[in-house]
Amino acid sequence: MGVVADAVLAGGGEAVGVIPEALAGKEVAHPGLTRLHVVRSMHERKALMAEIADAFVALPGGYGTLDELFEAITWGQLGIHRKPIGLLDVEGYFGPLLAFVEHALESGFIRPQYRELFVVSTTVDGLLAALSRHAPPAPITSWFGPEEA
Questions:
Q1: Angle at 114 between CA 108 and CA 115, to 5 degrees
Q2: pLDDT, tens digit (0-9, with 9 covering 90-100), for 34-60
């Protein structure tokens, strides 16, 4: 995250951070951020990030990245937000995850329209273009039976 923040700042952009108090004491918060919000918990962190974000972009990462990615997708499915979500698939990193999503679709655990909750690209320019064109599907209206289109 620090490398991305440095690049944003070097390019003249704004870099906003959100960190829980417990982690702020253990990790070195980026000293050059445009703004840094210190919150009480991870739940507050994710809620604030969702509130202030224009879009969600996942880069290769671990459990925290996957947690935040799937929360953004779930919140999009539920209509909590209507913001674009994208995966930057560097060197095929997300290939196994995308295969799993296809498996869940084929198994009936994800409705086909909700595969459209996120876009994927292997390049930054391609992802930014896809995000700018992205129109998320309508949020879920019923957990049971077919939904109305």
A1: 85
A2: 999 999 998 999 999 999 999 999 999
pTM score of the predicted model: 0.85
In the CATH scheme, what architecture does the domain 56-136 have? 3-Layer(aba) Sandwich (3.40)
Both tokens of 85, joined, read 């979500």
- Residue whose structure tokens are 């906003």: 16
Selection from 116, 65, 72 nearest residue 94 by Cα: 65
With contact defined as beta carbons under 8 Å apart, do 53 and 39 qualify?
Answer: no
What's the rounded Cα separation, in Å, for the pair 13 and 50? 19
Distances (CA, A) of 33 to 17, 24, 49, 138: 7, 14, 15, 35
CA distance readout (Å), 58 to 7, 26, 65: 16, 24, 7
* Helix/strand/coil for 88: strand
State the span(s) of the chain assigned CATH 3.40.50.450.
56-136
Decide: helix, strand or coil at residue 13.
coil
